[in-house]
Design a protein that fits this description.
Belongs to the peptidase U62 family. It comes from Qipengyuania profundimaris. This is Metallopeptidase TldD-related protein. Strand 15 and strand 16 form a beta hairpin. The chain contains nine helices and 19 strands. It folds into two domains: 218 residues, PmbA/TldD fold (2-Layer Sandwich); 223 residues, no CATH class. The chain is α+β, with helices and mostly antiparallel strands and 448 residues long. The strands form four sheets. A six-stranded antiparallel sheet has the order 3-2-1-4-5-6.
Length: 448
């Protein structure tokens, strides 16, 4: 796999080729990655997989017209053909009054300290297999576990390079380590499945295989004997593993492109008290070993630490160049670069600040409620804010976690949910979006 310096060099080469063929401006983004994973099931090796990929995308501007094209052919003649076709396509494209490169004076130019995104520890297939087996053994050892869906361990490395025709040329390397286990508990029609899964930048930061396996087994066993529950409005408590999705909906609605397309329920709510005044949501792009850490975005604009929600109010939209131009806003360093096509919007590490009460205190006054540990379905409308998801978890009776429940639906509107959100104090930084356990009163629960 190429390193970040080689990725940047290839981007620069492609930009120069595009300029030589008539592009007024251009940028190129290169991604390369390598991963290896080992899966086991019932104590036997099931799959060993290794993959490598390299791709580069080119975006060119001819006047106000632009095009984007992508290839995995890094041969000199292949890049030359790519640049020629991109310019030809741009000349035929409709004019876009908003698309452009980031202005030169807004590009990242500072020193980039090591964010510790790449672990020098590169585990062998034998080590990965041993970790996967240990996780599965621990899960199967939990009393009540009756079968296994398997366990896996993996490691990956990647590089990203970006170059623009107005002087930006940077790249970085990153990596991750994963460990997971999934098992079945119960028999016949009462079987339940659950899992445990963790990803970290450094292998040494992963929980032990025994801990991952035990968590998977205990979660599956706790779900056995699940029933439905009566339909009515009640308090709903989200565990962190599923609660971060609710915050993800907020981020999607705050994206500049969604605002520009008028496809966000947040339009017109900029100064509104969206959450309780004590709620704060932070973005931490420079966190060491963070899963979404970065110094610059997909257009070369510097990222920054910022409050996305302060005193319960949103702090503005997340923009890339096109949406900032369309909305007449400043750049916020949130451009995201996927494969081909124009940049989208993506956030860095996001944190919902914890509250002051424990989880036990959070649910102590709930006479009848729901503790959600699983969500499924895609019933979220970001245009209207309507929210409806299938759910499973546990009933709360008299301030205590009671028996498991499943085959239920929870519903509400995101503005109402945000306004009623109360966080506990159990925040842990484990994911790209991290939240503590939180409670939302007044949600509609549909069961039996």
């Amino acid at each position: 796999m190429i390193d970040s310096a080689a990725a940047v060099a290839r981007c620069q080469e492609l930009v120069d080729l595009a300029r030589a063929r008539g592009a007024d401006a251009a940028d190129a983004a290169c991604r390369a990655g390598a991963s290896e994973s080992v899966s086991v099931r019932l104590g036997e090796l099931e799959e060993v997989e290794r993959s490598e990929s390299e791709e580069i995308s080119l975006r060119v501007f001819v006047g106000r017209r632009s095009s984007s094209i992508q290839t995995s052919d890094f041969a000199p003649e292949g890049l030359a053909i790519l640049a020629k076709r991109a310019v030809e396509m741009a000349r035929l494209a409709p004019e876009d009054p908003y698309g452009a490169l980031a202005p030169e004076d807004r590009l990242f130019s500072g020193e980039a300290a090591d964010l510790e995104l790449l672990d020098p520890d590169d585990p062998s297939p034998e080590e990965l297999r041993a970790a996967a087996l240990a996780a599965e053994d621990a899960a199967r050892a939990v009393n009540g576990v009756t079968n296994s869906n398997g366990s896996s361990a993996g490691a990956s490395r990647s590089v990203f390079g970006l170059a623009t025709s107005n002087g930006f040329a940077r790249g970085y390397a990153s990596g991750s380590h994963t460990l997971s286990a999934s098992v079945v508990a119960g028999e016949g029609g009462g079987m339940e499945t659950d899992y445990a899964y963790r990803t970290q930048r450094f292998r040494s930061d992963l929980p032990g295989a025994d801990e991952i396996g035990r968590e998977a087994g205990e979660r599956a066993v706790r779900k056995t004997g699940s029933t439905s529950m009566p339909s009515r409005k009640m308090p709903v408590v989200f565990e962190p593993r599923v609660g971060n999705g609710v915050l993800g909906h907020l981020l999607a609605a705050m994206s500049g492109p969604a605002i520009a397309r008028k496809s966000s329920f947040l339009i017109g709510r900029e100064g509104e008290q969206l959450f309780d005044s004590g709620i704060r949501v932070r973005e931490e792009p420079f966190r060491k070993r963070g899963l979404r850490s970065r110094y610059f975005d997909g257009e070369g604009v510097p990222c920054s630490e910022r409050l996305l929600v302060e005193d319960g109010k949103i702090g503005g939209w997340l923009t890339n160049v096109a949406s900032a131009n369309q909305l007449d806003l400043d750049l916020t360093g949130h451009a995201g670069r996927g494969g081909g096509g124009a940049p989208g919007v993506s956030a860095s590490n996001i944190v919902l600040d914890p509250g002051t009460v424990s989880v036990e205190e959070l649910i102590a006054d709930i006479e009848d409620g729901l503790y959600v540990t699983g969500l499924f379905g895609q019933g979220v409308n970001l245009v209207t804010g309507d929210y409806s998801r299938g759910a499973s978890g546990f009933r709360i009776r008299g301030g205590e976690i009671a028996g498991p429940v499943s085959e239920i639906t929870i519903a509400g509107t995101l503005p109402d949910m945000f306004r009623a959100l109360t966080p506990a104090n159990d925040l842990e930084l484990q994911r790209g979006i991290d939240v503590p356990t939180f409670r939302i009163d007044g949600m509609a629960v549909a069961g039996e």
